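Worked example 2:
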Amino acid sequence: MNSLAPSRLTRWIIGILVGAFFAIPLIATFLYTLRDPKGGMSLVNWHKLIDPAFASTLQPIWTGLGNSLVLAVVTVVIVLVLLAPTMILVHLRFPKLRPVFEFLALLPISIPAIVLVVGLSPIYLQIARTLGTGTWTLAFAYGITVLPFAYRAIQASIDAADLRTLSEAARTLGAGWPTVVIKVLAPNLRQGLLAASLISVAVVLGEFTIASLLNRQVFQTAMVVVRNQDPYLPAIFTLLALLLVFVLLLIIGRAARGHRKARS
């Protein structure tokens, strides 16, 4: 078996190639933001973020970012309040339904966003009449979009934990099902729930097609509008969004390590 393992040189080559695949576009984008319209390189484009003269230009991005953050929160709530308890219920009470549930959960990943919008358009007509046309209503569509990714993250934690024994022990001690799910099972699924939340936030911040076709202003659609006025600002905000996701990854990794230490 050891003879089949790649050599140290091979691992280094693969690591360098993978690192370059991700690093080169980021470095190129950062260098692009340093271009000075007068020639050379400087931080003049980054200074526009705090320059009052560009406040009106940046307003669509701030509005879109605020809408996207609200959508991210609502989408995460949908994942944690609806998807996670349903997966726990299927795992404990209806294990025979798991293949069907898994198929339905993974189905949206095979459906193009534009096709999904065509199917959701009649539904959103009714939503607009009932709940209005607020941007937050996109969370219903985003909940479907993030479903396959959130499902895989949570299911990995469910498979790693003995939920049946934990739930039976808690029920034997007199705990009700809400207490079992919130205080017993959820802490053991924390890593999967955090990963699903992060994925939901990343998908919401990066989604463009659904918001554009349903005529809602979010972070990505706002950057397209601003790009027509200043091509550097969208690149800057793209880097800041990636930095935010990276920080969230670090937080989740730290929380997961702390959880493993606490269990050991």
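The chain is about 75% helix and 0% strand. The chain has one domain: 53-263.
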